[in-house]
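Regression report. Comparing outputs from two consecutive submissions.

Submission 1:
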Amino acid sequence: MKKIIALLTGGTTGEWVVSVKSAATIGQNLDADKFEVYKIMLTQQGWFYEPADSVKIEVDRNDFSLTIQGRKIKFDGVFIAIHGSPGEDGKLQGYFDMLGLPYTTCDAMTSAITMNKGYTKAIVQDIDQLNVARSAQIFKSSPYDIAQLKRDLKLPYFVKPNNGGSSIGMSKVNHADDLQAAIDKAFNEDSQILIEEFISGREFTVGVVKLDGKITVLPATEVETAKEFFDFEAKYTPGVATETTPAKLRPETRDRVAKIAEAVYMKLNCKGVVRIDFILSGDEADFYFIEINTIPGQTATSFIPQQVAAMGMKLNDFYTKLVRETIG
């Protein structure tokens, strides 16, 4: 019997553009012999299934079902491909938990916590051989002392929305006089922001996934960009960043990274595939945790498909194992 899967895409943030591309990759690589897939678009206007040959069909949110030509379709599980809210912040996961519907991502609690960069760092910071940059968290609704921030933290700073993704609203501050403008920019995206000391080093990202009951760390990717940092343009404009998969690392560094990445996955009680961004300072020295992405991009050029290929696995097999592991 084929599993009936809802492939959920769209969302209510600027990241919906990436989400649609991710869903296209996933849809093309979900094995049609094993799964009956219905792509569902979630927007501010509603939740719809859009068959190629007819008008949009609205999802019944009481039980997350579709009625097509009098036939009621209930799903065995949901492949969530929504970056940002409400797919990555725990809202949809809570809804599906209430309906008893399994899904491919981390649970509601982990999704909600990991959307908040400051809270995540507080949880992982005692993991062996993992370092976090010194930082301060400030809130739009509470007063903050900009002079104190400048005294507490060393330049340059990274200023970023605490719950954002895709580097939207993020700035690198090289001069203390520019801090207020960077804070204002980040507050346009979020009501709480993180100001971090800049860590100098090589930037990497690594996928971690549980397949066949075992946590697997994918080959890491090194990200190099001529820009000040890996911002939205560098992420999504071809040629702006150089990505090397697998990253050129000494075998002992590779083993250490895999061990730390697995520990992060376990400590945060992750499920499905996640991606951890980190920096190695000096000559492959200290591991600095940057952030975790619990619904990483799956576009044709995204890191996870690159890393799956570097591992010698077909995306078709990867998604089959992911669905079997998370949905059953």
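Submission 2:
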Amino acid sequence: MALKGGRANLREIDRWDGGVGWISYPDEQMQRASHALDTDDGVWVVDPVDAPGVDDLLADLGEVAGVVLCLDRHKRDAAAVATRHDVPVSIPRWMDGVAPKLDAPVERVGNELGNSGYEVHRVRDASFPPWQEAALYGPDDTLLVAEAVGSVSFFCAGDERLGVHPMLRPIPPRDALGDFTPERILVGHGEGVFEDATPALHDALDGARRRLPAAYAKMARGMLLG
């Protein structure tokens, strides 16, 4: 199984009243997930990975209001999707380094994502390791986290439904994410958590260091076995 890429075959995930998610390359290990948020402001497309069928999925929701990147290294296919829908790529004001890499107009956002009802929260802004990440928190207590936590196998240890990114397990983002009480959690890698989301988040943050050896051992086995 390839780490990233392979044959595009869009698979829908995370359908709820406020939007939908998809994985464009379901056979890849990274399980890169993208989302479309259906808001009063229009449809906001978050960290998109493109594939045949994406525009049909978006059209079912309505008109695209914008594309937003929540991680400095999640350039993905944001520029291509934004260009097709004639909208800018929105990036938090404090996030630098990614805008020059985008072949599309860029718009900076503050603490609110347009008039979508989603708040933009800083998860990490650090130079070592280099990492700038924002989370979105909005209607019906929906939390979207691009990278700090995920549900894909290499994020999780033991029976975790949600795990902290392997690089952040020694310093889990409790201050950034610990006060949220979401009804659902959407992630940038893997399917979202729709049942008992708040306990899953708090368990991931509280157990990140304790389960670090198990997580790293699992990741090493996965790398060895391919």
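Expected: both submissions complete independently.
Actual: both completed, but the second showed a warning that disappeared on reload.
Relevant detail on submission 2: DSSP finds five helices and 13 strands in the chain.
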